Amino acid sequence: MEPLRDLLFDYTIRNVALGSAVLGTVGGALGSFAVLRRQGLLGDALAHATLPGVCVAFMLTGSKSPAILLLGAALSAGLGALFILAVVGGTRIKQDAALGIVLSVFFGAGIVLLTFIAGSGDAGQSGLDRFIFGQAATIVRADVVTMGLLAAAAVVLLALFFKEFKLLSFDPAFAASLGFPVRALNVLLTALIVVAVVVGIQAVGVVLMAAMLITPAAAARQWTDRLSVMVSLSAAFGAASGVCGALISASGSNLPTGPLIVLVATGVLVVSLLLGRRHGFVWAWLAGRRNRREVLGRGGAS
């Protein structure tokens, strides 16, 4: 294993770690709202919806420039998000069914296009399949800058509309009664989740992206009941998972970065489920045991 200092000063590893930290931060912060709104599948559906956009962008331009491919991914995911909102708002189909439709149809279309491109004989198509499972090792400085700008814009908007998103997450009916544009806020929050997905697909791929939205947020939820604290903790857990996963991957050979990032985040979740100060299993068990002793003590005293 390479010394930690050597890993941190390696150009490629530094870019991968920074990119993963950016992904974890924006994914964790926005994932908090997806968890609270019981939209865990939303990130998964939108991540899978990016694949046909990547393929179409390559077919139209013949370029594998990350900016072009991510633009195609964003447009495709945005189309999927609008479809979900339109179906849920205009039909009797429930949200889980709409999410399942978008996930399967868009991902199926993406696989068909990817197979068509692979069989076309175009030598430039090599590497497009990295968007399925991610390939963080391909992240360069320009990618980190792009990811950072997108993430910064999403975080700024999240901060500006934090109170509105908070009300939307906990009581949308009350928000509507106060005159807030609930539909527009819903579209904006979904658009920000699309940005988080676009930021992360190059690192962890469409298959694992949902984990970077949900896992840090679920871990943070075990430690607090305050939304602001939860969002901050979730972002911190996501960033730490990204950096640790990248460093672990770089310390050995043939260790995939994306899955390791997800595994580290899962480890944080397991620890939080056990030891989380607010909702952790251990503290709940100790509190229950203490309550039983008090009840038994009162019964004996009487």
Characterization of the model:
- There is one protein chain.
- With 302 residues, the protein is an all-alpha fold.
- The longest helix has 40 residues, at 182-221.
- The mean pLDDT is 85.
- The chain contains 13 helices and no strands.
- It has helices spanning 4-9, 11-36, 40-61, 66-90, 95-118, 130-133, 141-160, 162-170, 172-177, 182-221, 227-251, 257-275, 281-301.
- The protein has one domain: ABC transporter involved in vitamin B12 uptake, BtuC.
- The chain starts with a helix and ends with a helix.
Give me the number of helical elements.
13
> Any guess at the CATH architecture?
Orthogonal Bundle
Span of the ends, CA to CA:
65 Å
Q: Determine the structural class based on helices, strands and strand pairing.
A: mainly alpha
Q: Could you spell the SSE succession in H and E letters?
A: HHHHHHHHHHHHH
Overall spatial form:
globular
Strand content: under 5%
The total of beta strands comes to 0
Q: Quaternary status of these chains?
A: single chain
Tell me about the biggest sheet?
none
Cα-atom radius of gyration: 21 Å
- Low-confidence parts lasting 5 or more residues at pLDDT below 50? none
Percent range of helical residues: over 70%
CATH homology group: ABC transporter involved in vitamin B12 uptake, BtuC
Class, according to the CATH hierarchy? Mainly Alpha
Number of domains: 1
Q: Would you tell me the overall average pLDDT? A: 85
CATH topology: ABC transporter involved in vitamin B12 uptake, BtuC
